[in-house]
């Protein structure tokens, strides 16, 4: 059996079409179609049937998909085992993807323990949309993805969520803006200029629901995918912005802002997503243990605090 053909079949099956697989693999659609035809000829059965503008698996295709996932999963485990095997004088390369919704300071704090292992480690970081990073993870081009949400239900990848921890969110403002917002928190958010997280981000959805539940109507002056850009807007006094409560001191010091208030009813969650069900990679082990035992060790308190 030609495993390259099987690999193309797996990507088309997961992504639902040749064109999507072509974009993901950077291979011409005609090449992928030809490879799948060769696989079907070798197996003596059709694996796909047309379904609207896309493709749907046949009964035989679903059976082959199960075997293909198992084959490539085992291959990934082999690569992990070989890469993690102690090698005298060799540098351990750790490839990590960070979803663009994850605050950069959180990402650095999470990844930092991987640099403190006894053996030398070279870290390769990629920042992208979560679905794109999961595609790279499925192709074993990444060892880990750090995200603010678990694997979406509509994304078909053979990977596992490892919950790192949760925290509340704090609202920050430049000193001048803070002085202009009188009253108690969270009422002082009503009518305030607000730099909002992206609508499709996990924290953005929770924050909008929280504002609605408290009948608060801030004036949204910007909406940012990039949390670093939101903080820069906030530093310049354009509006109030949110950040993880566990980073209050870091954010105040770095951006010269102050905390307006905090809520533990809007939860920011963080996940390590890997192809390993049981974590064995030393860098991933270091990250998960430090996150759970240090960064997010304080129990999540269900209360509000204002300043």
TrEMBL record:
InterPro entries: LysR_HTH_N, LysR_subst-bd, WH-like_DNA-bd_sf, WH_DNA-bd_sf
Alphabetized NCBIfam families for the sequence: PRK11062.1 (NF008284)
Organism, scientific name: Cupriavidus gilardii
Protein name per its UniProtKB record: Transcriptional activator NhaR
GO biological process terms, semicolon-separated: regulation of DNA-templated transcription initiation
Residue span(s) of domain HTH lysR-type: 1-58
Similarity-based family: Belongs to the LysR transcriptional regulatory family.
PANTHER family in the cross-refs: TRANSCRIPTIONAL ACTIVATOR PROTEIN NHAR, TRANSCRIPTIONAL REGULATORY PROTEIN NAC-RELATED
Keyword annotations: Activator, DNA-binding, Transcription, Transcription regulation
Family annotation (Pfam families): HTH_1, LysR_substrate
Listed GO MF terms: DNA binding; DNA-binding transcription factor activity
Matches recorded under SUPFAM superfamilies: Periplasmic binding protein-like II (SSF53850), Winged helix' DNA-binding domain (SSF46785)
Residues of the signal peptide: none
């Amino acid at each position: 059996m030609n495993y390259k053909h099987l690999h193309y079949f797996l990507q088309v099956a997961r992504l639902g079409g040749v064109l999507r697989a072509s974009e993901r693999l950077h291979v011409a659609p005609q090449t992928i179609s030809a490879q799948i035809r060769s696989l079907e000829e070798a197996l003596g059965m059709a694996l796909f049937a047309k379904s609207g503008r896309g493709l749907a698996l046949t009964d035989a295709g679903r059976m082959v998909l199960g075997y293909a996932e198992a084959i490539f999963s085992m291959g990934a485990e082999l690569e992990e085992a070989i890469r993690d095997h102690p090698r005298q004088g060799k540098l351990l390369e750790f490839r990590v993807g960070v979803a663009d919704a994850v605050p950069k300071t959180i990402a650095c704090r999470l990844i930092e323990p991987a640099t403190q292992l006894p053996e030398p480690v070279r870290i390769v970081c990629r920042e992208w949309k979560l679905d794109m990073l999961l595609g790279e993870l499925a192709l074993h081009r990444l060892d880990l993805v750090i995200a603010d949400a678990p694997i979406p239900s509509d994304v078909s990848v053979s990977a596992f969520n490892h919950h790192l921890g949760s925290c509340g969110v704090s609202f920050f403002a430049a000193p001048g803006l803070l002085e202009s917002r009188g009253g108690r928190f969270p009422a002082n958010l009503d009518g305030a200029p607000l730099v909002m997280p992206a609508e499709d981000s996990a924290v953005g959805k929770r924050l909008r629901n929280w504002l609605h539940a408290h009948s608060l109507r801030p004036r949204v002056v910007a909406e940012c995918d990039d949390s670093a850009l939101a903080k820069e807007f906030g530093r310049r006094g354009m509006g109030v912005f949110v950040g993880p409560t566990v980073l209050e001191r870091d954010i105040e010091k770095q951006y010269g802002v102050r905390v307006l208030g905090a809520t533990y009813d809007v939860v920011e969650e963080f996940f390590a997503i890997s192809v390993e069900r049981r974590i064995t990679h030393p860098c991933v082990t270091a990250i998960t243990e430090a996150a759970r035992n240090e960064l997010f060790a304080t129990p999540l308190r269900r209360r509000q605090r204002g300043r």
